[in-house]
Write a structure and sequence with these properties.
With 321 residues, the protein is of the alpha/beta class. The chain is built from eleven helices and 17 strands. It has two domains: 118 residues, Up-down Bundle (Four Helix Bundle (Hemerythrin (Met), subunit A)); 190 residues, Translation initiation factor eif-2b, domain 2 (Rossmann fold), CATH 3.40.50. It has a seven-stranded mixed β-sheet, sandwiched between helices. Strands 3-4-5 form a three-stranded antiparallel β-sheet. The structure holds 5-S-methyl-1-O-phosphono-5-thio-D-ribulose.
């Protein structure tokens, strides 16, 4: 992705240190977080310095590469960071397999990241075909280069369509409580793609007024029958899209497809802390006594999905990927 004219990935390696664009600080500050140990990586994942399913997977792969002796313990620590995104678990198994086969740890992690980037590029090429001139497209959360190392999943088709000269407009859900929509807007701004940020509860208004022609989101885990977990609020957008006859696409690579679970009822939903809701940028917006519930994801049934944009093409579940 381009930032101020320079090419960036959301994370990269420098002399066996892992560098992350600190996503807690964006879009206000562009700062780099450096991880030297597995514990630094677990800290980065838990605290959302790195976030987004494929990027979390890549971070975990590098966590495994950094682990000194006890591979099992490192794997356990990494698995305990965040429960919902399948990529995390997929990447850890991938690394265990490669290391047990005698591969160099950093080479294996680098191969993992290059594969993810290639898959996201293919998702872009496949999804780009859905985008026509003058379309208005809604997206939720951030499924861009930040969430996937480069290109993005949901944002990859938009990025490539724009680079191919197509003219379209993006509605960006602000995505309470952590406002990942700002990350999406930041990426679109740097790519010079026209967009506006809307409040999460405004999407239905725009759909009903025929201001949205298509919805594209990413996914954190997709079950065998096509039910998928994504950022909280995705489910209601999918229901509204169906009600308004708007196609709803999910973009994700192989590492997000969990073939071990038959449907979405088996997906563990992460609950996050109170301060994500009760504070904005460190400023309290609720009285002390307010109690909150903060599920980070919801599950959308497969029946609401028009198609899954993958590196292999656009598919419709029930599938084994
Ligand atoms: O909690 P996050 O920010 O890590 O969650 C990420 C998402 O849910 C995104 O919406 C995304 O679609 C999955 S990552 C490409």
């Amino acid at each position: 992705m381009k930032v101020e004219g320079k090419e960036y990935r959301s994370l990269w390696v420098e002399k066996n240190l892992i560098k992350f664009i600190d996503q807690r600080k964006l879009p206000y500050l562009f700062e780099i977080f450096t991880a030297k140990t597995v514990d630094d990586i677990t800290f980065a994942i838990k605290n959302m310095i790195v976030r987004g399913a494929p990027a979390i997977g890549v971070a975990a792969a590098y966590g495994m590469a950094l682990s000194k002796k006890d591979l099992k313990k490192s794997a356990e620590k990494l698995r305990a960071t965040r429960p919902t995104a399948y990529d995390l678990f997929y990447a850890i198994e991938y690394m265990i397999d490669k290391i047990n086969n005698g591969e160099n740890r950093f080479d294996a992690a680098s191969k993992y990241v290059e594969d993810i980037i290639e898959q996201c590029k293919k998702i872009g090429e496949n999804g780009e075909k859905l985008i026509k001139d003058d379309m208005k497209i809604l997206t939720h959360c951030n499924a861009g280069a930040l969430a996937t190392v480069d290109y993005g999943t949901a944002l990859a088709p938009l990025r490539l369509a724009h680079r191919n000269g197509k003219k379209f407009f993006v509605y960006v859900d602000e995505t309470r409580p952590r406002l990942q929509g700002l990350l999406t807007a930041w990426e679109l701004k740097h790519e010079c793609i026209k967009h506006v940020i809307i409040a999460d509860n405004a999407a239905g208004y725009f759909m009903k007024n025929k201001d949205i022609d298509m919805v594209i989101t990413g996914a954190d885990r997709i079950a065998k029958n096509g039910d998928f977990a994504n950022k909280i609020g995705t489910y209601e957008k999918a229901v509204l899209a169906k009600e308004n006859n708007i196609p709803f696409y999910v973009a994700a690579p192989k590492s997000t497809f969990d073939n071990t679970i038959k449907d979405g009822s088996h997906i563990i939903i992460e609950e996050r802390g109170k301060s994500e809701l009760s504070e904005i940028n460190g400023k309290t917006i609720m009285p002390e006594w307010a109690s909150v519930k903060n599920p980070a994801f919801d599950v959308t049934p497969a029946e609401y999905v028009t198609g899954y944009i993958t590196e292999e093409g656009i598919i419709k579940g029930d599938f084994s990927y």
